[in-house]
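quick one before i forget lol
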Amino acid sequence: MQRLENFIYMSTYKHKYFKPYCVYITEKMNNYRTILDNLSNILPVRVTTYSPPYEDYFTFEEKFMQTRKALTRAKNTNNWILQLANVFYLGQLLETGTEEDRNHYASQLTGHYKILTKRTYYIFEIPGVSQIMRTTKTKLSTIRLLSSKEYEDLVLEASNIFQRS
């Protein structure tokens, strides 16, 4: 593997057309590593956990709408941690709701957000929002750029990390 990396590095140095592809490979590997490092992060020990933007007694529709509003507000204020938390809560709603609710409300999301809600929920399912609040570099784009294999490995790694705790 090291020889291949050296070849790619040398090729990018000598040939201008390989550079964007090499940078893309490096970023993809860094996305996996970034999320894994953030999953392993135990500091700060005490975090202020962001509660769901809805009450338990709300209907599914009200929960969905409130969470989407909170996500929009987080996007408009460039608060990437709250964006992650709200995408997690959307994923939790969709993945734990009835199949009918899941299908109906997931159809209101873009394909981009369908993927993000599912991935974010399953990566952070065991540690929950408190671990999202500890993240230092994981953003929505970091999760979205993972390959399917990397995503599956991260779900497994998260399970392993938090089973030991």
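fyi Confidence is low (pLDDT under 50) at residues 1-14, 21-26.
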